[in-house]
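hiii so um. not sure if this is the right channel but i have a protein structure encoded as tokens and i wanna go backwards to a sequence. like what aa goes where. can anyone help
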């Protein structure tokens, strides 16, 4: 199949991250490459009553470094992470939205719990001081679409702003949405990404009660073990990541650097169970099929898959089965890894962070390791990159993320040729 065509092509020209393992691209990539986990004991609330003790918290983040004092005070954490990461991506792309036709720009952000902090702060204020303690800012910063609105207002993006919420598949879905908008000639430049700030006691307690999160003791950095016989759940994370997606000729005309090309996206819904995946990963397989069909690429050309890898046995096994079923004999030439043991699982922001990771894997010619995988489950016999990251000139990279309700989103990045 011929990858190149006369359709409008979409490239990544800027990236920004606010993550537990790094507040800039260099430190973020170094920790992922070297397997330096950000997991530690939870400090923001009491975890004594529950069995899950660890999280990947963002530390040393000051919102005033990325926005004015009033905005920093008004916005809840998830919105702070969104605005900060989006600003970093715009700066990295060296792009000025005021110089672009406003109707040729847009922003799409993904989030699944964007208003949770505001809701709980508002409830606490009512209990403590009554009705008059509620500020209108709770309403403005707490609605689901507030992240895309804040980014648009802060960066002057006047084309359109939209929020996508598809659980942990959101981060990949926003990339697919932005790609479609550019290819359909609606816009030339899109900011796309996601953020999440789920480290609130009620949310954290609920995930622990559902047994989705690890109950491991000992070293927090060794707690999350995707595809391992000792895997018992994920370590929750937080943060935001955004990328600038640009139509290729627009990027070339202004001399932009190009990290990678976004060549395919596929999504599916299993309609099987509110939380559990289909045991055979039928939705994951369908998403991969759609992604490569859109990219006009044969499965044998994919070299690396950054998997969802949440260290929950049903999820891990479903993902492995789907990959084996889809790639067939090529699965033995396929490198696979999960990077969530380093970043934590930031829910809707996962796909956005992992888009950045995949683009940096292409740029730096390195496949990140799967941290803490020492004894794979018998069925998990793929070429998981373990021990250390692997130097390899990667050309085609697939990112998989799945969410509640059987939603799966698959993204394909390719090296842009010189």
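sure thing!! here u go:
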């Amino acid at each position: 199949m011929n990858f190149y065509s006369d359709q409008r092509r979409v490239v990544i020209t800027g990236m920004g991250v606010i993550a537990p393992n790094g507040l800039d691209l260099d430190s973020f990539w170094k920790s992922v490459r070297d397997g330096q986990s950000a997991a530690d004991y939870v400090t923001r609330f009491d975890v004594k009553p529950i069995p899950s003790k660890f999280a990947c918290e963002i530390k040393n983040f000051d919102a005033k470094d990325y926005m004015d004092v009033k905005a920093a005070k008004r916005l809840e954490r998830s919105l702070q992470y969104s605005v900060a990461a989006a600003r970093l991506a715009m700066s990295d792309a060296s792009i000025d939205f005021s110089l672009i036709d406003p109707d040729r720009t847009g922003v799409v952000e993904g989030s699944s719990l964007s208003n949770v902090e505001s809701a709980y702060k508002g409830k606490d204020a009512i209990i403590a001081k009554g009705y008059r303690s509620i500020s209108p800012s709770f309403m403005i910063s707490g609605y689901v679409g507030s992240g895309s609105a804040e980014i648009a207002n802060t960066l002057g993006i006047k084309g359109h702003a939209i929020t996508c919420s598809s659980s942990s598949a959101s981060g990949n879905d926003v990339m697919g949405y932005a790609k479609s908008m550019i290819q359909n000639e609606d816009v030339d430049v899109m900011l796309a990404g996601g953020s999440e700030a789920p480290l609130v006691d009620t949310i954290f307690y609920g995930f622990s009660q559902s047994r989705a999160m690890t109950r491991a003791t000992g070293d927090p950095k060794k707690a999350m073990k995707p595809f391992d016989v000792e895997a018992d759940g994920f370590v929750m994370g937080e943060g935001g990541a955004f990328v600038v997606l640009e139509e290729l000729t627009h990027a070339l005309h202004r001399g932009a650097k190009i990290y990678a090309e976004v060549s395919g996206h596929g999504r599916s819904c299993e309609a099987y169970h509110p939380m559990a995946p289909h045991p055979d990963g039928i939705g994951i397989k369908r998403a991969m099929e759609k992604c490569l069909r859109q990219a006009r690429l044969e499965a044998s050309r994919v070299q690396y898959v950054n998997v969802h890898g949440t260290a929950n046995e049903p999820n891990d096994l479903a993902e492995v089965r789907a990959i084996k079923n889809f790639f067939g004999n090529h699965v033995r030439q396929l490198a696979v890894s999960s990077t969530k043991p380093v970043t934590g699982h930031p829910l809707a922001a996962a796909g956005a962070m992992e888009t950045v990771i995949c683009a940096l894997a292409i740029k730096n010619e390195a496949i990140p390791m799967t941290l803490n995988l020492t004894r794979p489950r018998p069925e998990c016999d793929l070429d998981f990159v373990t021990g250390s990251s692997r130097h390899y000139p990667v050309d085609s990279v697939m990112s998989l993320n799945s969410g509640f309700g059987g939603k799966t989103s698959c993204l394909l990045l390719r090296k842009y040729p010189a």
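oh and Residues 77-93 form the longest helix (17 residues).
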